TrEMBL record:
The keyword Cell membrane does not apply. This is FAD-binding PCMH-type domain-containing protein. Residues 66-236 form the FAD-binding PCMH-type domain. InterPro entries: FAD-bd_PCMH (IPR016166), FAD-bd_PCMH-like_sf (IPR036318), FAD-bd_PCMH_sub1 (IPR016167), FAD-bd_PCMH_sub2 (IPR016169), FAD-linked_Oxidoreductase (IPR050416), Oxid_FAD_bind_N (IPR006094). It comes from Agrocybe chaxingu. Belongs to the oxygen-dependent FAD-linked oxidoreductase family. Pfam families: FAD_binding_4 (PF01565).
Length: 491
């Protein structure tokens, strides 16, 4: 049915030259807004409907908890067409979604029952050797970016595992294998190409608009749709590292080595990540070692390498191969949730709590529906926040040197969604309370990383004292709150 109220509201917008065209329907589709978009966009873009193959690709997410059935999928091919779509959905107050690569498991963050915008066509990588920067499209996954930059012998601060989207990763912060050396991905940002909520395409830099530039560095879709990032590059040699699987019988050795690493490591080229997983009735550890060079300094990782394992793929390799070698705890097609908790120190007593939580919730929840629980211990250097003196939306403070630990649950049956969400909230609170109780008082005040935090985390836990500044930018750039029609973190 044609929705007359929506169409007449849209016609009232004098700024829309295509409003009259939009009132006509195509035979193929009865949704007036999708049909209007289809007529208004250029030949560089397309609209897909349920039943089209590319519709299914467009609405898919890494975790099925993030899926919704939209009226149509729009694949814009130019920034100007993104602007056209934003004018139409904004003018008609139509709920919409913006999806980079769909890796956020949070429901409704990159999905909608309205108009679903998929950014796939923004897939260019352009290296500028003189400026030592790369422009990358927001429809890419990191693997594409690494492959495109490798022939130039350069790299960028990006994702650690295969297949993760550049858009949400960068717009939320971005913790990388390179973070100890160069900071978060947002710390390497030179410029954004942004389609503002009014449809205008602008380049945003520190010079052009310092407040908006700050807001975009952690502020996701609050200020419009980003079509391109310009990021700093750095020379890239072969690297050393990869994953090792270690059984529960050696859990004390790996935990002690991780705790010692956190207390003593100083080389910013090195990184360790220890993940505890409960699956198929067993606790197992995946240890990730990384060194940004073909060979680590003698002895650096010996304590880890001496632990007996049941599968190891640690070697000298191209950077993209390191990323490809990294197993993700689960792949596409599971229900899933992440939750974030921040700690100040990786102490043995705290990791014991984390291990107990992995096992406790793994046992409790697997009784219901086949699952994995994974808890990641990520001992970055505390100097990682020192690589940027400009303000960024996230983290709101760089004076608390917090570590962004996280949990991940995967399951099969949607009947139990609420139980898993609730367990993810309870468990992160147990760990945070334990950190505070052992003297890490600032753990309770530390920011929570929005790319890992569960969907109903209070926004003040993400943006803290930056909220007034972010709200001021929001009022200026999006006075009609067009972006409020899309899901995700809202300032
Ligand atoms: C297997 C796996 C591994 C991960 N590893 C890491 C890691 O090592 N380090 C790390 O920091 N994070 C990691 N993450 C988290 C990751 O950063 C987030 O899931 C991120 O949001 C993924 O980006 P995306 O483009 O796929 O997001 P999407 O799910 O597509 O979008 C997330 C949010 O960003 C918004 N958004 C997307 N594109 C745009 C755009 N063009 N303009 C404006 N807003 C937009 C969406 O509307 C949505 O609200 C990992 C996630 C997974 C699933
Ligand atoms: C990608 O690059 C090609 C070649 O320069 C250009 O024609 C196209 O418009 C670019 N696409 C986007 C989405 O920027
Ligand atoms: C393990 O965690 C559960 C749930 O938080 C808790 O009830 C239990 O007391 C913990 N066990 C130990 C040994 O700490
Ligand atoms: C999901 O769980 C419910 C409740 O136990 C059960 O009735 C239903 O059959 C399950 N669905 C699937 C697909 O297994």
């Amino acid at each position: 049915m044609l929705n007359h109220a929506i169409i007449s509201a849209a016609l009232a917008l004098a700024t829309l030259p295509f409003a009259v065209q939009g009132a006509q329907l195509t035979a193929r589709n009865q949704d007036p807004i999708c049909a209007w978009i289809e007529r208004a966009i250029s030949s560089a873009s397309n609209v897909y409907y349920p039943g089209d193959t590319l519709y299914n690709k467009g609405v898919a997410h890494w975790a099925t908890t993030a899926n919704q059935v939209s009226k149509c999928v729009v694949e814009p091919g130019t920034a100007a067409d993104v602007g056209t779509v934003l004018r139409i959905v904004g003018g008609t107050r139509t709920p919409f979604a913006v999806k980079g690569a769909g890796h956020s498991p949070n429901p409704k963050f990159a999905s909608t029952t309205g108009v679903h915008i998929s950014m796939y066509r923004f897939n260019n990588v352009t290296y500028d050797a003189d400026a030592q920067t790369a422009e990358i499209g927001t429809g890419l996954v990191w693997d594409n970016v690494y492959d495109a930059l490798a022939p130039h012998g350069v790299n960028i601060v990006g994702g650690r595992v295969p297949g993760v989207g550049v858009a949400g990763f960068t717009l939320g912060g971005g913790y990388s294998w390179k973070t100890n050396q160069f900071g978060l991905t947002i710390d390497t940002l030179v410029a954004f190409e942004l389609v503002r909520p009014d449809g205008k395409v602008v380049k945003v830099t520190h010079e052009s608009d310092p407040q908006l530039f700050m807001g975009l560095k952690g502020g996701f879709n609050n200020f419009g749709i980003v079509t391109k990032f310009t990021l700093k590059t750095h020379p890239q040699s072969e690297v050393w590292g990869g994953p090792t699987q270690i059984g529960a019988d050696h859990i004390d050795e790996v935990t002690d080595a991780t705790v010692e690493w956190d207390a003593t490591a100083t080389d910013p080229k090195a990184q360790v990540m220890t993940t505890y997983t409960y699956a198929r009735g067993e606790l197992d550890i995946t240890l990730f070692l990384f060194y940004d060079g073909p060979t680590p300094p003698a002895g650096m990782f010996d304590r880890f390498l001496a632990i007996p394992n049941h599968g190891s793929d640690v070697k000298t390799r191209p950077f993209a191969d390191m990323v490809q070698s990294t197993p993700t705890a689960a792949s596409y097609g599971f229900r899933g949730i992440f939750n974030a908790f921040s700690v100040l120190d990786t102490t043995r007593s705290l990791v014991d709590v984390i291990i107990n939580e992995t096992q406790y919730w793994g046992q409790q929840l697997s009784a219901k529906t086949g699952i994995i629980t994974t808890y990641a211990v990520e001992p970055f250097l505390r100097s990682m926040y020192s690589h940027n003196t400009e303000q960024t939306a996230f983290p709101p403070t760089r004076s608390i040197p917090f570590l962004p630990f996280n949990i991940y649950y995967a399951w099969l049956n949607s009947t139990y969604d609420e139980e898993f969400y609730n367990a993810a909230r309870v468990s992160t609170k147990v760990i945070t309370d334990a950190a505070v109780a052992e003297g890490q008082r600032a753990a309770a005040e530390a920011p929570l990383y929005p790319n890992n935090a569960i969907f109903d985390t209070p926004i003040s836990k993400v943006y803290g004292d930056n909220l007034p500044a972010l709200r001021a930018v929001k009022r200026r750039v999006d006075p009609a709150n067009v972006m409020g029609l899309a899901g995700g973190w809202k300032v």
